[in-house]
């Protein structure tokens, strides 16, 4: 792995949210050692107050609250600014937009145009010597795969992506990737759940290890930099937080960042209301929350796949989100106070058009969903006009980026049927070679 060591490793411990037990991060911990009940773990940083570093450090300017051992090249931090155009259109006095994507005029240069880069640069910055010679495995519905592929290619980190076949058009890049990045897919008609299942089987093989999803503190705290950006720019914790969700990991991260700011003590003593959203008709988190259920409700496989086909925001199609787990989205919504909203494709398209007209940049479908629910919430009187509102634009500028660059697509090495056996998967994956191992 070729990495840059231009930063002092962050001092932190880990805590089991279920038991409160604190322990050292001995490597790539995703679960609390010795505990049987499912729970997330949380990073407890030595620096209780956040002091952002030089903006030239990209996302690592927030290193005080990132569980990293080293910095990687090429990162860009989310940028927050006070809205004028959209705010005026909606009648909001204090609308702040946190933008992750491609918008050079605003100082944000994410080449994959998605806030998933915040995850990739932090997760890969957490890698330790014990991972050398092994292959990182990441399952994704699209944007996460693109972000990890770019970061790992640029920094020579062996990576295997597992993505549904129908989502591989999301794997575009402005230059050919290094061969240390490889892609396998679940067959046409499969969904994100199938890609996760494939990745889990591969992670059981020697020489591979799981990125960990929501269980990885680096992923959550990387995503939480959106709230670090907003709060330090505004000078206080927002009152309302709007974001579209697939797994809900970004909202969990936002809640955790809020809790750290409470401990910091300089940015307010309140919790922002989590206004999270899904793309109708794929709304399993919405349905569970409205039913008052910690457990996800039954969702028949064929119906779930049909609903995934019908939504524009494919990245919001997680059937097994970290919603019920201790410290997960259910707990975040209960503690912070929140709502799960929905937007249709047509509502989201209209919101994206309004954003581009009033703010000047294009949006990813997921960010369009979030914007649509903000518009509806204001119209329905759910948000006071003088409230401090943070709109987390999780991806944008892709249209412009594609116009300015020649695109290269990552082709899959293998396609696996949904019912592929462990032996079949093991045999085929064993044929792959990574030159950077």
Brief characterization of the structure:
With 437 residues, the protein is α/β, with parallel strands linked by helices. The protein has 14 helices and 18 strands.
How would you sum up this structure, described in words?
The chain has 437 residues and is of the alpha/beta class. It has 14 helices and 18 strands. It has helices at 85-90, 116-126, 143-155, 192-203, 217-223, 225-234, 249-264, 284-290, 301-310, 329-336, 345-359, 365-379, 398-404, 422-429; strands at 12-16, 22-23, 41-45, 79-82, 95-99, 102-103, 108-109, 135-139, 159-164, 172-173, 181-186, 208-210, 240-244, 273-279, 338-343, 389-393, 408-409, 414-416. A 6-stranded mixed sheet has the order 4-5-16-13-14-15, with helices on both faces. A 5-stranded parallel sheet has the order 12-8-9-11-18, sandwiched between helices. It is globular, with a radius of gyration of 20 Å. The chain starts with 11 loop residues before the first strand and ends in an 8-residue tail after the last helix.
């Amino acid at each position: 792995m070729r990495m840059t060591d231009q930063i002092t490793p962050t001092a932190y411990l880990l805590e089991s949210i279920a038991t409160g037990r604190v322990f050292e991060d001995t490597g790539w911990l995703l679960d609390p050692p010795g505990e049987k009940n499912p729970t997330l773990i949380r990073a407890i940083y030595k620096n209780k107050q956040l002091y952002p570093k030089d903006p030239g450090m990209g996302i690592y300017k927030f290193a005080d609250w990132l569980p990293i051992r080293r910095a990687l090249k090429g990162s860009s931090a989310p940028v927050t600014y006070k809205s004028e155009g959209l705010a005026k259109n909606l009648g909001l006095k204090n609308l702040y937009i946190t933008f992750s994507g491609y918008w050079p005029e605003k100082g944000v240069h994410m080449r994959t145009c998605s806030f998933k880069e915040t995850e990739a640069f932090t997760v890969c910055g957490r890698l330790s010597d014990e991972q050398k010679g092994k292959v990182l495995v990441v399952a994704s519905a699209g944007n996460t795969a693109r972000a990890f592929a770019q970061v790992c290619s640029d920094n020579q980190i062996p990576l295997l992506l597992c993505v549904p076949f129908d989502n591989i058009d999301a794997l575009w890049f402005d230059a050919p990737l290094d061969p240390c990045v490889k892609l396998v897919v679940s067959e046409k008609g499969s969904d994100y759940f199938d890609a996760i299942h494939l990745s889990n089987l591969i992670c059981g093989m020697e020489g591979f290890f799981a990125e960990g999803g929501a269980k990885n503190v680096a992923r959550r705290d990387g995503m939480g930099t959106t709230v670090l950006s907003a709060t330090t720019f505004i000078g206080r914790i927002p009152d309302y937080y709007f974001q579209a969700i697939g797994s809900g990991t970004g909202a969990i991260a936002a809640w955790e960042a809020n809790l750290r700011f409470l401990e910091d003590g300089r940015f307010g003593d309140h919790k922002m209301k989590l206004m999270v959203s899904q793309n109708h008709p794929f709304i399993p988190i919405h349905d569970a929350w409205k039913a008052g259920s910690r457990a996800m409700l039954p969702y028949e496989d064929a119906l779930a796949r049909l609903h995934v086909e019908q939504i524009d925001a494919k990245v919001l199609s997680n059937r097994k989100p970290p919603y019920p787990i201790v410290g997960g989205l259910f707990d975040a919504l209960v503690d912070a106070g929140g709502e799960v909203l929905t937007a249709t494709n047509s509502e989201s398209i209209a919101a994206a058009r309004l954003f581009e007209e009033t703010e000047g940049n294009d949006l990813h479908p997921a960010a369009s969903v979030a914007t649509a629910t903000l518009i509806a919430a204001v119209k329905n009187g759910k948000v006071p006009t003088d409230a401090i509102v943070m709109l987390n634009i999780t991806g944008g500028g892709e249209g412009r980026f594609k116009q300015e660059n020649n695109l290269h697509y990552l082709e899959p090495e293998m396609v696996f049927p949904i019912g592929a056996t462990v032996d079949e998967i093991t045999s085929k994956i064993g044929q792959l070679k990574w030159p950077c191992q």
